[in-house]
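Appendix B. Raw example, untouched.
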Amino acid sequence: MTGPKYLPLRADVVGSLLRPDAIHQARAQHAAGAITREDLWKIETGCIEQAVALQRECGLKVATDGEFHRRHWFMDFIEQIDGVGFAGGLPTKFQTEQGSIEFAPPRVVTKSKLRRTKPLAGRDFADLNPIANKYGVMAKQAIPSPTLVHFRSGDAGVDKQAYPDISEYFHDLAQVYREEIKALYDAGCRYIQIDETNYPFLCDPNMHEHVRSIGEDPVKLQYKYRDLLNAVTKDRPSDLILAMHMCRGNHESAWAAAGGYEFVAEVAFGGLDIDVFFLEFDTDRAGGFEPLRHLSANKIAVLGLVTSKKPQLESKDLLKKRIEEASKFVPLDRLAISPQCGFASTIGGNRLTVDDEKAKIRLCVEVAQEVWG
């Protein structure tokens, strides 16, 4: 990757935005049978225009659709892959400063051969792109990582009749994602973000029990997922920006994992064919910037220094100081800034207001302008 392809976007946004009341009301009406799914879709599309306008008003040169067509950051995408199903929940303790929240994202299983017979995020991008063009910003499409399909149940969650050889399973999973990325590119998308939780989860020793429960080793699994992700990105067009957001969990202002990136940095930052890494550095539980030394070639680190989990606004001086600290491990011209995560990875959203959200995004833009010009 060459610097100029990405560097104009010194301030960026991860993906999800707080859903407006119109979407919550429309979803309730749809659940009650009062409106159709297409009626709901049209209402969401109207709200996406407001979301793009909000991002542009804050000074961003890039915009997402806020994930307004989704109820959850990965379920709506994953469930459209032929052969994938959900089987119960995977109980997880999400943490807040006030205590823990019990939340059970679905356990993902593979019931039959994995195939992509319909667009997974294509309709979302088809809505976003013309709106982004209208407002003069670059459209970014977020998709969940393929590692999610495996991590939540392991090899045991893969039907043995469909895949007696597990290597064929990983081959087909990568093919599904390659086809989706190609379709998005053909539709005009030049900026795709893969949302990845499992590498950061491996950084938390408390998560290793789950890794071993699915028959995996926390170190060896990194290489297995590196090979899967590089198979997904293989032979991609040179003008397609591929980003990865490494997230420790984001549900109603709560988080699931802790620990710095050092445990996975050499394999992930050095070995993944990814142009841009969005990294969470908003609290002490994220560790220091030392793992950035493993970023190979011209890879960019977008520092998630501004928390999306609470309304208090960070100090500009502190943010600049932290950027300066990060520049000791990767050159300043390969750094950028963003909120640490999305504002509403699950539909309820984090404990902020829309005004708080705008202030956080605007802060990133202003700091970027003052640091990089």
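End of appendix B.
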